[in-house]
Amino acid sequence: TITVGVLALQGGVVEHINLLRKASTHINSSESLQFEFLQVRTTTELGECDALIIPGGESTTMAIVARRLGLLDPLREFVKVQHKPVWGTCAGLVMLAEQAAATKQGGQELVGGLDVRVLRNRYGTQMQSFVAGLDLEFLGRGEVPFKAVFIRAPIVEEIIAEGSSSQGIENGVERAARVEVLGVYRGQGQQQVEGGENGEKGDIVAVRQGNVFGTSFHPELTDDVRIHVWWLRQVVDATWHGKLVAANGS
Ligand code: GLN
User: Fold this and answer.
1) Residue ranges around ligand 1 (CB below 6 Å)
2) Number of separate helices (H) and strands (E) present in the chain
3) What is the model's pLDDT at position 177?
4) What are the residue ranges spanned by the domains of the chain?
5) Ligand 1 geometric centre to CA of 89 (Å)
6) Closest ligand 1 atom to 218 CA
7) pLDDT 10s digits, 57-74
8) How far apart are the two ends of the chain, measured CA to CA in Å?
9) What is the pLDDT of residue 189?
10) 214: β partners
11) Among 8, 43, 136, 243, which is disulfide-ready with 39 (CB 3.0 to 4.6 Å)?
12) How high is the pLDDT of residue 2?
């Protein structure tokens, strides 16, 4: 069994679990591969997980609750020491950034793992939420655009000096984990991105660095399973072989 957790302190938890369930039926289960999906609220539950999603919601609140429950350091360990697959959507992306620049709020505690600085609430308030078709090459060639839902979304405003997340080093060995830009939003129609340093180049809205993946938008609020399937495949690649070896006692 591969256990995938969704951090359930606050935010869009059930939506992720539902879409993960649906996505898991698309994964070739030739090796009697089973998934279990778990809402994570304690360090014990986190300890049972092979991979984790940090959902959307409100990142300051999520950090405060995580701190209160003693989950912040175990989360950092999960991401940066155990290097287990983690995906943050929206507020989850903020949590996984090494730095966050707030538009209004001040500093906040983060889990980190991605050598990026995010800009919170890039597109304004809840009222300015929108859906945009994104071409995401990592889903494969010729795929139709992904309908990305942006709700008070953060963007990656800068890739910062790599190594601050400790992604660079594992057991004293340098890892080739660089920040890959996997999605850019260039604005369209009514939703042209105005001003800002990224106005011309577009805004970075999906990144991956080694085991850590982040999206500004909310695939779990659609019924498009493609990103969940893509991510689950990586979870399988990262964990299943190790489990088979362990089960065979070799
Ligand atoms: N604006 C929120 C934050 O900065 C994220 C919004 C969301 O997750 N939909 O935490």
Assistant:
1) 56-59, 90-91, 94, 120-121, 151-152, 154
2) 6, 14
3) 80
4) 2-247
5) 9
6) 9
7) 999 999 999 999 999 999
8) 18
9) 41
10) 88, 207
11) 8
12) 95
Q: What is the pLDDT of residue 103?
A: 47
Closest CA to 238 of 26, 102, 83, 125: 83
The pLDDT of residue 25 is above 90: yes
Average pLDDT, integer, range 145-173:
78
Which atom of ligand 1 is closest in space to residue 59's alpha carbon? Answer: 10
The string of pLDDT tens digits covering residues 178-229 is: 999 999 999 854 444 555 444 567 999 999 999 999 999 999 999 999 999 9
Q: Which CATH number fits domain 2-247: 1.10.10.10, 3.40.50.2300, 3.40.50.880, 3.40.50.261?
A: 3.40.50.880
Amino acid code (one letter) for 170: E
241 is catalytic: no
Q: Name the nearest CA neighbour of 43 among 76, 12, 13, 16.
A: 76
pLDDT the model gives residue 201? 77
90 counts as catalytic: yes
The predicted pLDDT at position 108 comes to: 83
Give the residue, out of 94, 126, 155, with the most ligand 1 atoms within 8 A of its beta carbon, to mutate for a pocket test: 94
The contacts of residue 8 (CB under 8 Å, 6+ apart) are: 39, 40, 41
Query: What is the C-alpha to C-alpha distance for residues 104 and 90, in angstroms, rounded to an integer?
Result: 17
